[in-house]
Write a structure and sequence with these properties.
heterodimer, A: mainly beta, Immunoglobulin-like, seven-stranded mixed sheet, four-stranded antiparallel sheet, 11 strands, globular, B: mainly beta, six-stranded mixed sheet, 0% helix
């Protein structure tokens, strides 16, 4: 079974703090994704990566950065957390290619910025 | 850019009954894929069913089936013999047929409650 794990289920941070959210997958997937999930807005793509050290912006990258130093690990960084970044963050991974490859999701991190 | 619309924020169905969740999308692409994902309360999102746009036959997975109307850009999910474990958020999603990362565009979700 594919397993995608995220470092924390719940996180509380203060405004202005630097926040790291970690995601690890164990299926040798090339693609990894970070989404945020908000009520009434669904899931929105923040950043994705199709290879080590490669990244592309998604639909809402402002205020976020990412790092992928190893194939299995993809980190989301909030350089200076703000209250409007309070949300559920979901990581996902998938195979690379032209097929309709399923994305496998982690359990999510509920981040509260106070 | 693609958009996916789910017009039913919440739905309720009795156990053993059938329910249909609607999804429409907008795209200028001809080759693409459509998905339904399920997110149970406090649990991970999982794939329910997928449909390839070039296939006319509607996809089925046990009690789950879709009604794919390409011309109308409609992709509804039918759940037959609903079970309590079907209680979840359901997201419709679109993926372009492309050679790189398989990015998904999601709808806003439908919260389904299955009752006794």
């Amino acid at each position: 079974d594919v397993k995608v794990t995220q470092s924390s289920r719940y996180l509380v941070k203060r405004t202005g703090e630097k926040v790291f959210l970690e995601c690890v997958q164990d299926m040798d997937h090339e693609n990894m994704f970070w989404y945020r999930q908000d009520p009434g807005l669904g899931l929105r793509l923040i950043y994705f990566s199709y290879d080590v050290k490669m990244k592309e912006k998604g639909d809402i990258p402002e205020g976020y950065s990412v790092s992928r130093e190893k194939k299995e690990r993809f980190s989301l960084i909030l350089e200076s957390a703000s209250t409007n970044q309070t949300s559920m963050y979901l990581c996902a991974s998938s195979l690379w290619g032209r097929g309709p490859y399923e994305q496998y999701f982690g359990p999510g991190t509920r981040l509260t910025v106070t | 850019a693609q958009t996916v619309t789910q017009s039913q924020p919440e739905m309720s169905v009795q156990e053993a009954e059938t329910v249909t969740l609607s999804c429409t999308y907008d795209t200028s692409e001809n080759n693409y894929y459509l998905f339904w994902y399920k997110q149970p309360p406090s649990r991970q999102m999982i794939l329910v069913i997928r449909q390839e746009a070039y296939k006319q036959q509607n996809a089925t997975e046990n009690r789950f089936s879709v009604n794919f109307q390409k011309a109308a850009k409609s992709f509804s999910l039918k759940i037959s013999d609903s079970q309590l474990g079907d209680t979840a958020m359901y997201f419709c999603a679109f993926m372009k047929h492309s050679g790189t990362a398989s990015k998904l565009t999601f709808g806003t979700g439908t919260r389904l409650q299955v009752t006794l």
